[in-house]
Amino acid sequence: MICTNCFEEEYKTAKTELAVTINGERYVLRDLDCEACPGCGDITFTHAQSLEIDKKRIALEFGVKPLLTPAQLRTLRRVLNMKLDEICDLLHIGRNTYGRWERGEVEITPSMNLLVHSLMEKMPDVRTEVVGKKPSKDNKSVKLDKKPGAAEGKGKKSTAICCAEEPTEYKLPGKGRKKLEK
Amino acid sequence: MAPIGTGLDEHVLHTIQEAYMAGKVRKTKDCMEDMARDGLFEADVEKVVMEATAIEKAMPATSERASNPHNTHYVIHGTSTKGAAVYCKVCSNYHPQTHEFIGWKLTSFENK
Question: Which of B43, B96, B103 lies at the smallest CB-CB distance from A1?
């Protein structure tokens, strides 16, 4: 497809970066496929490339929102001052589900974990009390790689992620999810 | 911004929806940055574009060099999968010399 900015060159597949904001913090996704014009440098994304970026963003979001522990879930309900049936109604889950998470009988599911994190994002003070970390306000963009030195262009570029704070081990919740022992 | 016109609304919207379903609508980097900033995903784009019943025409904003009288910017309002009010801007791109249609581009997609 011809560049719709300069109309002189065809777009070619290239790599780019994208800044992503999660919980008020900026992360940079690297090594993303895009279509770039060799002439003017204009960048566009095809539908397929956009879907791939979505996958990487979701993986990153899962990584920075680890599964809530039973203690955190108990704290959340205490801070919200809600009864078990009230919070179950709020989250549209079965009457006993939240109680099972709180008692550690089963782990919270990854999708519900994201939903509870989203709920906490609406109330920063609650989030601070439960997770113990205040979201940054200034969207700082200090780039730190998972592997120190990888961002300086030495050797192969890191495929994944830079984060704003200390490097974190990104692990998708749900993999190897199992029933907790009492 | 104003509605395009009774007969044209449906035609333009249908054309954009067909192009979207065929995976032929490209996104600009600005659009991807808007989406990443506002926590919007492709599913939200699909919901807004495919569920749209109305479309508005915005002023063309192409550069002088790239502009073509046929290039038109449209705005589609809708709600995201999380229920937030969002809007997207779609523009048609024509070649300045040949006037051949090149494709649709999503130039912006963000929360209102």
Answer: B103
